[in-house]
Amino acid sequence: MKNQMFYRSFEIDEREVNEKDRSVKTSFSSEMPAKRWFGNEILLHGKKNVDLSRLKNHGAALLNHNPSVIVGPLKNISIKDRVGFATVIFDQDEDGEKAFGKVKSGSLRGVSVGYTVQKFREVLQNEDYETEDNVKIKGPAMVAIRWTPHEISLTPIPLDSSVGIGRELTRSLDGIDIERTIKKQEAQKMEKHEVQEMIDGAIGRLNFAKPEDIPKAEDIATAVRSILTEDARPKMRVDTETFTDLLGRAGAVSPECKNKISDMAVDGKTEPEMLRAITDMATGKSDAEDLGDLGDGLKKKKKGTMDRTLRTSFEGLDDKDFFSGIVQPTMSFN
Which neighbouring-strand residues pair with 148? Predict the structure, then answer.
């Protein structure tokens, strides 16, 4: 795909026609944007951007991009003031004489350059891009930062630059190196009162068995801030409300459990995984009161405790029952 051609068209300035030398000096490229199917295309004309070696070593002026109709060699190929220039010397054969006559009469006054692009720099909407030689470009645009002109043709009607790549009009950028801006996701900035409102709202939606069961505001604030940091935000797989609920449940088990759930949330664990961790830690704490196996899966408890039924899910369990079960365990969670 890299070998397929783009085209740009220009117009011959009649004042540059030199009848004595049988030549015409013309521009063949510039940094003016050309409309393509993918948006604006800009050809940079710095020393590192344009490879003129092909034109200088093998360049010839064609008629209507037909490689079998050569009207003459190209001389004085250069970039000046960020514009590409070349001088066409007309051969004294039939094709050269015919083309030169039409240029002098004004019936052949279009110039079209065929070129390939090796590397584009994509400039996004509302992005400002500055080149190494301080050219400033506003997006959106595809900026050719390495490209090679292959041939220059004289044409009666300049080729429409919007038609795409190649004589077969293949519309694809496959095979062309495209440099893109990687936009880092910025952490969301919130005012102190906005964080407090988020905390108050989350707490207000929970029904705690006792006031002392309500998690401390600073603990929730720490968790909320972790959600909003650049590293944590893309990993979070639970929303703020769910996370606050999980943090409250974990805090009722132990400070260690609360810290574990915070870490799991930052690491991108799912809600079922965090619920399972809370259950494991809560069950382990209760099992510490077991005094021995009485057989048939029953365990003897400390005096004053009740036998617990095995519960395998939180489904249908509200906050009040959950925290009551933690304070006065009558059931186990597995």
Answer: 116
